[in-house]
Amino acid sequence: MSNEILKKHLSDLKIETLRKLLGEDIVESLLEWELGTITKSKYSEILCSVHGVKLFKNPEFRYHILLTLRGKQADTEIPILKKLAKSKKDDKNEIIKDVAKCKWNKSELSKEILGIFGYTLEDAFPQKETDEKSIVQVDANERFYELLDYQYVIKQRALTNLTDGVELKRFLIHMPTGTGKTKTAMHIICHHINFNLRKKGLVLWIANTVELLRQAESTFEAVWRNLGDGSINVYKLWGTNEPSLGDETLNGFMVCSIQKLLALTKNSHGKNLFNRIVNDVRLVVFDEAHKAFAKEWSDIVDQLMIKKRGMQDRALIGLTATPGRTTSISGENSAFVNQFGSNIISIDTEIINRINLSEQDADNATAEMDIIKYFQQRGVLSKIKKEELEYPECLTEEEMKGIRLVATEYGYDDFSKDALEIIGKNRFRNIRIIERIKELNRDDFPTIVFACSLSHAQLLSSALTLAGVPNALVTGNMDATDRKNAIAYFKDRSNPLNVLINYEVLTTGFDATNIKCVFITRPTNSVVLYSQMLGRGLRGPQMGGNEECLLIDVKDNLKKYDEHLAFSHFNNYWNY
User: Fold this and answer.
1) pLDDT of residue 378
2) Looking at residue 334, what is its pLDDT?
3) How many CA atoms lie within 13 A of 319 on its CB side?
4) Are 339 and 170 in contact (CB under 8 A)?
5) 553 close to 566: Cβ distance less than 8 angstroms
6) Among 239, 244, 242, residue whose Cα is nearest residue 207
7) Contact 325/290 with Cβ under 8 angstroms?
8) Contact at 8 Å (CB) between 323 and 172?
9) Residue 313's closest CA among 166, 187, 525, 423?
10) What digits encode the pLDDT tens for the residues 227-269?
């Protein structure tokens, strides 16, 4: 999809129109930062970079861009557009007004307009993935799908917990990001289905983002093909996926969003399916378990973890890279611990030494208690090189007045959206951030940038485009296809794009092994969120990543957490 034709036509618009289309806030900030003269050509380039084909959704934009048609092109296209829009006008401007007012959808008129500027209907209206089957059967292969030593130990300890005879068992598995948490969990699940459940009953995997759900589905299928006993049903229950089920008992593996489970409890049809899940479930696995403490989500877990007369026993496993929810010693963390039975399975380096060393060497060896350092030494995780980015002017007194902590949807306190907007608009802070990103790009450092807000992400992308730095914008409200393409461009090292600017995505469920720098511009009070952002660069050479990863933290970010403390801060809450 090329923007070249659109850029040419955008350059024919008045500079005031281009500024209005880009947004006055972004324009004012770019001018205030004095990054250079912004010509009409640069405005056109920025609009294509930030918005691209999505510009055509705006009727005002369609009107202005169609007015740029000249000469033979206008003589050819205007009559066609008039006919498709069923306009009764004869004046060119009036015809274009009628055309621009028409509904923007997958129509012949939209196709004609897009074609003028080199686009297709598929570019503007990407096909939604509605052709996925809600139930698939996955056959097993013969090849063995091996676990690493520490993953195997976690698996065996988990299976011991699942078969120790304690009803309604709850426990949490803690493995740092980048050490194969999802794959290890799927080995546990496949073994449990094969040998303990004898393929009877339902294993329910719960997560809160599409990325995590897809990752879980694909990983389960890969493990089952290697370790599974025959075929198994995989049920997908998220977004538009809702399998059509008969009255038979649910047997197999179900991947479900917490949002879908909540929705099922709020109408009679949904409650019927929810009650069937409650009745047939034998194992509940909650990915990113720290989020299970949010009130509504916690209620769902409690409804699943009951055993009425006639029901089979079931267990709850939480998965997390950070076994705590806030940075303070609080009743909230204690309650979170209790939700998983005050029972955590973590990586024990002393046991790993017993496996890998001779008896004499193991007796004389001192076990490395710092799990992050241990995996860095083994090359499983990259070594983090920290850099604190300073900027000349701190946040003003006026800016500080608007910065406060509020309760988030996940139950912990963090900076409010208004506070993050204020921080994200600081001129000196942003100029320093952009300067550093430009340096990283010159050094060919693939970099993920975590922005403060949506507007901050758009602003950074605009400024980098203006500076000639190839970048992609990935936000939570983007079309899934656009997001997928942006991530693919970043992961493709033959592509010159080295900078991925992110807001509300990529903290979890995203695996890119080429990351050399994690740039955190978003301050946070949550050790959970901070460690997830940091985790994007933690994959070491043994996991297909890099020996080292640069972590850049803006000076106003929290400084009492480093990559070691983030994983050990909550240990005193657990009964090992």
Assistant:
1) 87
2) 66
3) 26
4) yes
5) no
6) 239
7) yes
8) yes
9) 166
10) 999 999 999 999 888 887 878 899 999 999 999 999 999 888 8
Q: Which residues of 399-438 are buried (b: 16+ CB within 10 A; e: fewer)?
A: eeeebeeeebebbbbbbbeebbebbbbbeebbbbbbebbb
DSSP symbols for 389-404: E--SSPPPHHHHHT--
Q: What is the pTM of this model?
A: 0.70
Q: Set out the domains of the chain in order of their start, with CATH numbers.
A: 4-124 (no CATH), 135-352 (3.40.50.300), 380-573 (3.40.50.300)
Give 259's contacts (C-beta < 8 A, 6+ positions apart): 208, 238
Sign of the CA dihedral 65, 70, 73, 78?
positive
Cα angle vertex 560, ends 175, 531, to 5°? 30
Q: List Cα–Cα distances, 271 to 274, 278, 303, 482, 526, in angstroms.
A: 5, 10, 12, 34, 34
Give pLDDT tens digits for 136-190. Answer: 888 876 555 689 999 999 999 999 999 999 999 999 999 987 788 999 999 999 9
Q: For the segment 258-278, what is each residue's pLDDT rounded down to a tens digit?
A: 999 999 998 888 899 999 999
Token pair for 216: 């879980």
223 touches 186 (CB < 8 A): yes
> For residue 473, what pLDDT is reported?
93
Averaged pLDDT, 402-407 = 54
The three-point CA angle 31-36-39 to 5° equals 85
220: left (phi over 0), alpha (psi -120 to 50) or beta: alpha
Contacts of 425 (CB under 8 A, 6+ apart): 29, 456
Q: Give pLDDT, residue 576.
A: 33
**Which two tokens mark 245?**
């089920």
